[in-house]
Design brief:
This protein folds into three domains: 215 residues, Rossmann fold (3-Layer(aba) Sandwich); 52 residues, no CATH class; 115 residues, no CATH class. Helices cover 24% and strands 26% of the residues. The longest helix has 21 residues. The protein starts with a strand and ends with a helix.
Length: 512
């Protein structure tokens, strides 16, 4: 559990960059939706995001640090958006674009890392860690004594500080590189400090938002597993310990209507997502009259509620009805993807039925669907059926020869078979025998960046281990995967249960 404090130098950041803070809040609002916890165990979403900023006072020309959003109590998505919307939009100073560094005192670190600001957030909860994220387009000059003492004291309080430099297009790359090296040397002896620099493009900012979201989540979603081998893989070692990390960030498909009490804005349900028959305040237990309820509200995820104006009209999601439209967006080059030029990696999967390209990373979701041309029973005209069949096979063969697939969009979520207010993206993959495969693709909101796990090792030692592991690996039988002999044991288990059930005897009422 971590509380984030953003310290924004608005003099060097263009206003469009600030919208990503709203995305972070949106993700946080639904962060517990669809998780493994039961709704009855969910607690109110705690407020864990704070925003401070530095601006130049246009009257006195002095630098000021102000708090835009102070976390307290339960998280309010509405209040957070309101705070971001009201950040000064005229604080950006283009003349600072020519500066590589700014004085260390400009960051006001000693003001933020104090009892008046950060250390007063979170109350007496000792389990709450704190992290300050300093975002600027200019580097801080050499840290002075005051700044170093402030950062050292922060380390004693288990507060980490992450300096994020969003580079402008540099006039002198050499000067910037030298300044970065000097700054890194200044903080290298501070274990609670880190530094990274990025170009402020959409891809990088999306990744940063997802990383900050991981900091906000209550618990790590990694699952510890062991890869166990029949024979030793190295020396006496017959297993490898690993962590399973989700590569997909699910988002909700709809915002459900709900009722809340007017006194506290708390959701009226029974802890299992069902509306209660009695109108009582979840906080005080007092009975509520009609005027004490806000009936026109929307539930965002499981823990966040938005109070809506009376004119807002909610449309319930409907089950899809045939035919479902999939709009072709673009072609995608499967060969280039397999060479690592994008997020995707490809695997050639051979089965008894067909051969096609499928993706094996977190960008591919859910159930695969085999796509075949419609039969004559589904089309009125026999000639039209034949033409449809030929065009389908022509498309499949053309895509296969080009080593390409088609990216499609639809309002249908094939996992729930419901219409959604958001676009769903799919990949249509060709095969060499006239059928295709449809898989859901993750959108930008659903992709989770994979953590960098690279480490430095002694090259000679690593080479010896790799050779030994490879030799052990070659002793394992290799064959093309065939699903038929790989039974999960469903029928065996159910047959045993039915056999045991027969010992119970017959019940006349069940046979009637």
């Amino acid at each position: 559990m971590v509380m984030l404090c953003f310290l924004l130098d608005l003099r060097t950041l263009s206003p469009p960059l600030l919208r990503d803070l709203k995305q972070l809040a949106n993700f946080y609002a639904i962060s517990c939706s669809g998780g493994h916890k039961s709704i009855s165990k969910l607690k109110p979403l705690r407020d864990r995001i704070g925003i401070c900023y530095v601006i130049r006072n246009r009257v006195s020309c002095s630098l000021e640090m102000k708090v835009a959003y102070r976390p307290s109590g339960n998280f309010s998505l509405r209040d957070f958006h309101h705070a971001v919307n009201n950040l000064p939009t005229d604080a950006f100073l283009p003349e600072l674009n020519n500066n590589i560094t700014i004085p260390c005192s400009d960051a006001h670190l000693e003001t933020v890392l104090s009892d008046k600001v950060l250390y007063s957030w979170g109350g007496d909860n000792e389990d709450v860690g704190r992290k300050v994220i300093v975002v600027s387009s200019c580097l801080l000059e050499n840290l002075d004594t005051v700044a170093k003492k402030t950062l050292t004291d922060a380390a004693d309080k288990c507060v980490s500080v992450d300096f994020v430099l969003l580079e402008q297009v540099p006039n002198g790359v050499g000067s910037l590189s030298e300044s970065i090296n000097n700054f890194v040397k200044n903080i290298c002896d501070l274990e609670n400090c880190s530094f990274r620099n990025h170009l402020p493009d959409a891809k990088v900012l999306c990744i940063l938002v997802k990383e900050w979201l991981n900091d906000l989540r209550d618990e790590a979603e990694e699952l510890q597993v062991r890869l166990k081998f029949k024979k030793n893989i190295l020396g006496s070692l017959n297993q490898i310990c690993c962590n399973l990390i989700p590569s997909f960030n699910p988002i909700i498909d709809e915002f459900e209507p709900c009722k809340v009490c007017r006194c506290h804005g708390s959701l009226l349900d029974d802890g299992h997502g069902n509306k209660t028959m009695k109108s009582t305040c979840p906080v005080t237990g007092n009975e509520l009259g009609t005027l004490d309820l806000v009936a026109n509200s929307l539930k965002v995820g499981n823990q966040t509620v938005l109070l809506m104006p009376s004119f807002h009209c909610y449309t319930k999601l409907q089950h899809v009805t045939a035919p479902v439209d999939f709009s072709i967006v673009e072609r995608t080059n499967l060969g280039s993807l397999s060479e690592g030029k994008c997020y995707f990696h490809l695997l050639l999967l051979s089965t008894l039925f067909f051969t096609c390209w499928i993706f094996v990373t977190g960008l591919i979701l859910g159930t695969p669907f085999v796509v075949v041309p419609s039969t004559s029973n589904e089309l009125d005209d026999t000639d039209q059926t034949e033409l449809n069949y030929q065009v389908f096979h022509g498309l499949c063969n053309a895509l296969h020869s080009l080593d390409q697939g088609l990216v499609c969009s639809s309002r249908c979520n094939t996992e729930t078979m419901r219409e959604t207010p958001f676009q769903c993206y799919y990949i249509l993959l060709p095969s060499n025998n006239g059928v295709m495969l449809l898989r859901r693709l993750a959108g930008s909101e659903e992709v989770i960046p994979i953590a960098d796990v690279s480490r430095s090792f002694d090259f000679t030692e690593v080479k010896d281990i790799r050779e030994s592991v490879k030799a052990s690996l070659l002793e394992i039988e290799v064959r093309d995967y065939n699903p038929i002999p790989h039974e999960r044991g469903f029928h065996q288990k159910l047959n045993v249960l039915v056999k045991e059930s027969l010992h119970f005897g017959y019940i006349a009422s069940l046979l009637a």
